Amino acid sequence: MKNAFLKEAETKKALADFILSTDRLSMGNHCSKFEVSFSTKQQRSNAVLFNSGGSANLAMLQALINLGRLNTGDPVAYSALTWSTNTMPIIQMGLEPIALDCELDTLNVSSQKVKERYEEVPFKALFITNVLGFTADIDQIKKFCNENNILLLEDNCESLGTVLPQGRTGNFGIASTFSFYVAHHMSTIEGGMVCTNDKELADMLKIVRANAWDRNLDKKKQDELRETHRISDFESNYTFYDLGYNLRPTEITGFLGNYQLQFLDHTIDLREKNYLEIEKAISENDDFHNLDHAHILKLSTFAVPVICKTKELRQHYLNRFDSSGIETRPMIAGNMQRQPYYTKYVKQLFELSNTDLIHSNGFYCGNYPELSTDDIALIISCLEK
Question: What is the pLDDT of residue 183?
């Protein structure tokens, strides 16, 4: 990203005015307002705001354990092409991580990969990552999960705004997480969200987020908990009902979320336009594998993914990008099983041929609304044969 926010000068001015005029900076009404407006935008019943997308992942799994929907030792499958904070909470919660390979033409886990692994290791939950704005046949994954009583969870941090004929990414699982870190589709500097239509889960997420107390719940739920546990209103100030953390955002997060949300649709349109223009150079160069997004109605890309046919070709193109002053990154974290921490805590490893190829041969560069015509032309020139 060139800046921390879209329309940076305007946003910073509004933020400065807010800080000078507000009488509260700890989590309050602006956070609640952002939860309502974001859930409306995402078309989900409930949204719970956190201080980061990683915290959202952690809280989501803790909430499911608190509710007894997951238990210590349960196998949880996950997309191996992912980010650390998708996998680490599985390990931290004492669950068993089961890595799934992706498809080379979508970067994502397909229903076929899910079925193959389930036959080998029946898992209780599937934490899928919608990678870089793309997706595979997630509608069929949802169908399979429903048929086998598998909890389907989505990390939609990289795909906010992607739409399929069957609906928005982030709306297929029982819950989904989002990130508002600086480099994402919209920025609150740091920040994350869990969206769900499950009121019981949403209430538990609010408990987990704030030290496991009840003060952010509606009065009906508060009364229910206090009556069940015989807690007076006075004692309720420091009563803790389950396992939780302090993962609360500040009012700065809420204010920025509400302010930046007005630009989101325009941001997504520009990201799609930029990507489709750059993709032409990729499709015309046989040094690269092509990606399939014909099944996607709205492609809200997070970056420009490039998969070279050999490791040597990747180094060649990385050198071209570097000499042109364009930053590049590995394809997320590559094969998560190859990360140093993973084998310290996880003994069962799986063959992941496509994820390994992407790990060795893939990279991406930024795609964001403020790319100029010259910026896009320079990226294209680096991708030409």
Answer: 85
Maximum Cα interatomic distance, the chain, rounded to a whole number of Å: 72
Q: In DSSP terms, which residues pair with 129 in a beta bridge?
A: 155
* 290/159 same-domain check: no
What is 212-223 written as a DSSP string?
Answer: T-STTS-HHHHH
Q: Which residues contact 238 (CB under 8 A, 6 or more apart)?
A: 213
The reply to whether 120 and 178 lie within a common domain is yes
Q: What is the pLDDT of residues 236-281, one digit of tens each?
A: 999 999 999 999 999 999 999 999 999 999 999 999 999 999 999 9
* Angle between helix 251-261 and 8-21 (nearest 10): 140
Q: What CATH number does the domain containing 65 carry?
A: 3.40.640.10
Flag whether the pTM goes above 0.85: yes
CATH of the domain at 332: 3.90.1150.10
In a domain, 169, yes or no: yes
Structure tokens at 343: 């084998």
At which residue do the structure tokens 């990606």 appear?
291
Rg of the chain over all Cα atoms, to the nearest angstrom: 21
User: How do residues 287-336 score in pLDDT, each as one tens digit?
Assistant: 999 999 999 999 999 999 999 999 999 999 999 999 999 999 999 999 99
Question: Is there a domain that residue 1 lies in?
Answer: no
Q: Is residue 339 domain-shared with residue 251, that is, in the same domain? A: no
Tokens at residue 3, please?
């800046």
Could you tell me the two tokens for 205? 């997420």
As a whole number of angstroms, the distance between CA 142 and CA 131 comes to 17
Name the token pair of 286: 């046989």
**Whole-Å CA distances, 271 to 126, 264, 289, 366:** 28, 10, 21, 10
- Indicate if 217 and 353 belong to the same structural domain: no
Print the domain residue range for 307. Answer: 264-383
Question: 144-196: per-residue pLDDT in tens?
Answer: 999 999 999 999 999 999 999 999 999 999 999 999 999 899 999 999 999 99
Same domain, 197 and 183: yes
| CB of 162 closer than 8 Å to CB of 135 | yes
- Evaluate whether residue 3 is within a structural domain: no
Last residue of a domain, one of 212, 236, 261: 261
